[in-house]
Design brief:
Number of helices: 3
Structural class: mainly alpha
Number of strands: 0
Low-confidence stretches: none
Largest sheet: none
Radius of gyration: 16 Å
Strand content: under 5%
Distance between the termini: 48 Å
Mean pLDDT: 76
Shape: flat
C-alpha cells in the first residue's frame, strides 16, 4: 500500500509504479482525470489511427498478468462496417 501511495505522486516520477496494484491505481487515476469524454476521445483517435481497441488476452496473461515474450495485441476489425 505504501508503494502505491509513493508511486502515485503527481509530477514526481522518482518512484514509478512497480506492483500490479500501483499500476492499476496510476492508470485509473489518469482515466479519472480524462473523464468520460476524454476516454471516449482517446478511443476514437485510436480507432481512426487503426489501433486495436481490444484484444483477447493470452492465457498466460489471464493467469499471471504477465505478457508472453513478443506478445502484441491483434487488431480488431469493426464488424458493424460489414
Amino acid at each position: 500500500m505504501q508503494h502505491c501511495i509513493r508511486a502515485h505522486r503527481f509530477r514526481d516520477d522518482s518512484e514509478p509504479p512497480q506492483t500490479l496494484e500501483a499500476k492499476i491505481l496510476f492508470d485509473a487515476d489518469k482515466l479519472d482525470v480524462l473523464g468520460a469524454i476524454g476516454a471516449a476521445r482517446t478511443i476514437a483517435y485510436a480507432v481512426l489511427d487503426g489501433q486495436p481497441v481490444y484484444a483477447e488476452p493470452s492465457l498466460r496473461f489471464r493467469s499471471t498478468f504477465q505478457k508472453e515474450a513478443g506478445e502484441r495485441t491483434a487488431p480488431i476489425t469493426n464488424s458493424s462496417s460489414s
